[in-house]
Design goal:
It contains six helices and seven strands. The chain is α+β, with helices and mostly antiparallel strands. A hairpin with a 6-residue loop joins β4 and β5.
Length: 209
C-alpha cells in the first residue's frame, strides 16, 4: 500500500478539516433553525427540543472527531480505550446502527486508538440502513487485535475503502468524502498494523493486528 500514500500533509489536513465540517454542518444548521423559530415566537417547545437535540449531536460529532482525526495531545501520547468507547457510543446515538463494545480498557498509542474509531466509521458506512456494529478489543497489553463486525441489511464494504485497501490508486482524486478511507489505511501503517477484510452477504468483519 506504500504507493497509496501520496497526499501532502497540507492536502491531508485540508481534506480532514473539510470532512469534519461536513459532519457538523447539519446539526449546527439545525440549531440555527431552532433559534430562528424562537425569534419568530412560535413553537417554543419544539424549537428548544430541536436545539437541545442538535447541540448534543454536534457535540458528540466534535468529541468523536477530536480523537478520530485530531492530535488528541502531544506526539507519542497514549489514549484510553474507555474514552474512545465513550465518544463512539455518543456518536452512534445519532446514527442508525447500535454499538456493542467489548474488551478490556487500556492505554494504547494514539494512532492505534484513532485506527479503532476510523474502522468504526468504515463499518458504519458498510451498513447504510442500520444494523449492529460490534467492536472487540483483544490482547491490548501484548499484541493488540481489533475486530469490528458490521451486520445489517444491504451490507457492503464501502467501495472507496475496498479500492484503496487493495493497493490500487483511486481512479478519482481523493476528496473530503473519500479521505476518511485513506486516513484509516494511513493510521494502520503508522500503528504498524495490518487491516484484513472479510465480507459476506450477512456481515463485514474488519480486523487490525
Amino acid at each position: 500500500m506504500s504507493e497509496l500514500f501520496t497526499l501532502t500533509a497540507t492536502d491531508l489536513a485540508a481534506l480532514l478539516c473539510s470532512r469534519v465540517c461536513h459532519d457538523v454542518i447539519s446539526p449546527v444548521g439545525a440549531i440555527n433553525n431552532g433559534l430562528e423559530l424562537l425569534d419568530e415566537g412560535g413553537a417554543d417547545e419544539d424549537a428548544m427540543h430541536l436545539i437541545r437535540t442538535s447541540a448534543r449531536n454536534a457535540s458528540a460529532r466534535l468529541q468523536f472527531a477530536r480523537i478520530a482525526f485530531g492530535a488528541a495531545g502531544s506526539a507519542g501520547m497514549q489514549i484510553d480505550t474507555g474514552d474512545a468507547e465513550s465518544v463512539a457510543q455518543a456518536f452512534l446515538k445519532n446514527e442508525k446502527p447500535e454499538l456493542e463494545w467489548t474488551g478490556e480498557r487500556a492505554l494504547l498509542p494514539k494512532n492505534a486508538v484513532k485506527l479503532i474509531l476510523n474502522l468504526l466509521l468504515v463499518a458504519n458506512g458498510g451498513i447504510p440502513r442500520g444494523g449492529k456494529i460490534t467492536v472487540d478489543l483483544e490482547n491490548l497489553q501484548t499484541k493488540p487485535r481489533f475486530t469490528l463486525t458490521a451486520k445489517g441489511p444491504m451490507v457492503r464494504v464501502p467501495a472507496k475503502f475496498l479500492e484503496m485497501h487493495s493497493g490500487r490508486k483511486p481512479e478519482e482524486a481523493i476528496d473530503a468524502h473519500s479521505v476518511q478511507a485513506y486516513y484509516t489505511l494511513l493510521l494502520a501503517r503508522e500503528a504498524g498494523m495490518e487491516i484484513n477484510i472479510r465480507a459476506s452477504a450477512e456481515d463485514i468483519v474488519l480486523t487490525a493486528e
